[in-house]
Amino acid sequence: MSAPPNPAPRLRSIDALRGIAALGVVLYHAVERGENVVPNNLFAYPVRALQFVSSFGYIGVFLFFVISGFCIHLQWARARATGVEPDIRFGPFWKRRLRRLYPPYIIALALFLLVAYSYGEINLTHFFFYDIGMHLLMLHNLDPHTCYTINGVFWTLAIEEQLYLAYFLLLFVRIRWGWRVTIAVCLGARVAWMLLSHLVWLKFGYGLPVPEGALSHWFTWALGAIGVEMMFGLIQTPRWLRDLRLGALLTIAGTVLSYYLHFIPKDTFVKDFAWFLVHPLWGLGFFILINRLVLAEQSWIRRTRVPSVVSVLATIGIFSYSLYLTHELVVIVSWRFTNPAWLQSVNVLLLTLPITIVFAWIFFWFCERPFMIRRKAKTADARPAWTAMPESQPSTVSD
């Protein structure tokens, strides 16, 4: 794949998808559910519509997992595309990751604890210090008692960090045996984690989280890495992997299956098989969406014009990490001032959502951007500039 004649410094399509996923997550957490928030007047219909649409916002996390794999693998794929042997070293890789992601996370964690303290919701028990330690080590997703505490969306940050560790194993398998074996390994890891959780429960009575485990989403994450190699033309793939109709069908199928999971009896093969399919279906659907939009972006560059909607969403996508880190804080505070309950749905669009975006933008400038790594300009860089991407941003959502 050749570079467009007028290269752009970023892939705006990826940023726009970040923005869409971020807004979906915000709406999912901001809109309160239940009949008690539905008025007995003409507002009932729009409130119900808002509840229905926002209830699917959590699916954005799987879009973020694919985007994360895409961005992390970009450096390796870009080097390979220019004929340079990629050199991704563990030490420098983790130094960049920690410097880029950990300080804003710690600041957001401190803000949540400060707000909780101001409301008298902190008890200095043994569990509290254990909970803090698990969050600092980003292992809280492995314990059902700490997975959704402090900030209910932080568990996906732990998944991201663990997938970063798995990246070097992913690279090893991909280089040695190719993508078919690698994908089989990733799917096998998902099955193995489900089996391990079941065995641990039978033997010890401990509920090892399955949807919150990193290995459950390794396949979805690996799809992003395949997508970036497709973008550079390093691998040849069928045209149907860019078919938006198929992508939409897979995403809808995963959503319908997820909805009916609650009605399938527990501890049955059908239930386990449905759980196995849901996340990969979403991953494949978003994988196709990303492939298609990255391809479409080249036509935007040739016309030197990015669609206005894409531009707006891409702007939000740039600070989507800050939006994920802080949005639940704004949402929780806003709920305390909503009365009657149904008015909360109106406030989401008129007050909560705008304030959440503004607060995240301020947080980005003062608490995230100072830790972003600045790359030195290279005057004689032969790499196509249109492929330049910002550092990967973790996805956060709770379901």
What's the gist of this structure?
The chain is mostly helical. The protein has helices at 12-30, 44-54, 60-72, 74-81, 90-118, 126-136, 155-177, 179-204, 218-231, 244-260, 269-302, 308-318, 320-335, 343-368.
List the helices and strands and how they pair.
Layout: H1 12-30, H2 44-54, H3 60-72, H4 74-81, H5 90-118, H6 126-136, H7 155-177, H8 179-204, H9 218-231, H10 244-260, H11 269-302, H12 308-318, H13 320-335, H14 343-368
Helix pairs in contact: 1-3, 1-11, 1-12, 1-13, 3-7, 3-9, 3-11, 5-13, 7-8, 8-9, 9-11, 10-11, 13-14
Count of individual helical segments: 14
Q: Calculate the mean pLDDT score and round it.
A: 86
What is the gyration radius calculated from CA atoms?
Answer: 21 Å
Query: Which structural class should the secondary elements be placed in?
Result: mainly alpha
Task: Specify the overall morphology.
Answer: globular
Please outline the major beta sheet. Answer: none
How many runs of DSSP E, i.e. beta strands? 0
Helix content: 55-70%
Strand content range: under 5%
What distance separates the N and C termini? 38 Å
Low-confidence stretches: 1-8, 376-399
Element order: H for helix, E for strand: HHHHHHHHHHHHHH
